[in-house]
Amino acid sequence: MARTDRIAVLLTGVGKRYDIVSAFAEHAFVVAADPNPLAPARYAADVRVAPPRIDDPGYVPFLKELVERYDVRAVLPLTDLDIEVLARAGLPAFVPPPDTCRQTYDKYEAHQLLLRHGLPSPPTCLPGEEPDHYPVMVKPRLGSGARSIHPAADREQMEFFVRYVEEPVMVQRLMRGPEFSIDCLSDLDGACLNAIPRTMLESRGGESIKGTVIADAELVELGRAVTEAIGVRGPCTVQVFRDAEIGLGITDVNTRFGGAFPAPMYAAAPGRTYPELIVRLAAGERIEPHVGEFIAGTTFTRWYWQIELDDGTEPTGRDIVTGGPRPPR
Predict the structure, then answer these.
(1) Longest dimension (CA), the chain
(2) What does the alpha-carbon distance between residue 20 and residue 11 come to, in Å, rounded to a whole number?
């Protein structure tokens, strides 16, 4: 076993989430797994590995060997694809129970789950059923990244997009008004530790690239209520609209870190960023809930950078500007 003097964390499907991997690396020994050897976030970790595909029978055994080798205390997925797999794998995964993972991955099942708990979800139906209101959104039941989502002004448009999208879809009331995300974290007993709401000033491909953390008591309480009702363990992002006619409506629940990971990082007090709290939980520490305690008013605006690799796909240490990105002035 390759033990280290730091708590070891395994992050799966790291892709381009260099921000998340590097944040964990400040507080833990990080193993980053992604099947793509050029996934940039792998290069922020202490150890980078290329596992089999998630649907490969060798995927879970591969992860279990890493957990044993590095004495990993926390496993976190950075995509939707393996959340349920990890929940069923017998690993120290910071994910909800398998049924919750399955239901939140399927957006129609998530809608029904929310309603069963008395939580606000926009009117939603399946193809062949008549919506109670137009306009609507035709959207895939599975997947992420805001792909194949189409507004429809009437029944004719709705029926066209139901045929056009080549996967199972649902039909949901088109929510008007501002959109928000609530970045939440729960402990392994399902208690919400914090819920930090932010505006969605600009998104690309379903991922927020500009936003402001806000002190909105109604959204904070909604985040806490959702996570504790459905049994979240670990990070969760709740997406919600505030519609002038029907009020709050939850349009998505992702039981992982959201795209705007920097927002709760900037807003949290020292020692209470989500990576720090997860590492402390993984070490066996009990964390007292502090829901609503954060710094409001901070705004993030994200951009992109890159890593140069040599012919052996190892980082050269060079950058296109001396010393890396120019500090803000």
Answers:
(1) 62
(2) 9
Q: Enter the tokens of residue 232.
A: 């979240």
**Amino acid code (one letter) for 208:** S
Task: Looking at 149-209, list the stretches that DSSP marks H as alpha helix, in order from N- to C-terminal side.
Answer: 155-164
Token pair for 17:
């989430």
Q: Which long-range contacts (C-beta less than 8 Å, at least 24 apart) are formed by 66-71?
A: 66/10, 66/31, 66/33, 67/10, 67/91, 67/92, 68/1, 69/1, 69/2, 70/1, 70/2, 70/3, 70/4, 70/8, 70/10, 70/29, 70/31, 71/1, 71/3, 71/4, 71/8
pLDDT per residue as tens digits for the range 26-67 = 999 999 999 999 999 999 999 999 999 999 999 999 999 999
Strands 192-199 and 234-243: unpaired
Q: What's the CA gap between 121 and 184, in Å, rounded?
A: 18
Q: Give all domains of the chain, ordered by start, each with its CATH number.
A: 8-93 (3.40.50.20), 101-106+176-301 (3.30.470.20), 123-173 (no CATH)
Q: How far apart are the first and last CA of the chain?
A: 46
Q: Is residue 158 within 8 Å of residue 136, measured between CB atoms?
A: yes
Q: H or E segment at 226?
A: helix 217-230
What is the number of H-type helices and E-type strands within the chain?
A: 9, 15
Residues 6+ away with beta carbon under 8 Å from 157: none
Angle at 282 between CA 281 and CA 285, to 5 degrees: 40
With residues binned 3-state (H G I as helix, E B as strand, rest as coil), the percentages for the chain, rounded to 5, are 25, 25, 50
Rounded Cα distance between 281 and 38, Å, is 31
Could you report the per-residue pLDDT of 136-193, keeping only the tens digit for each?
A: 999 999 977 667 899 999 999 999 999 999 999 999 999 999 999 999 999 999 999 9
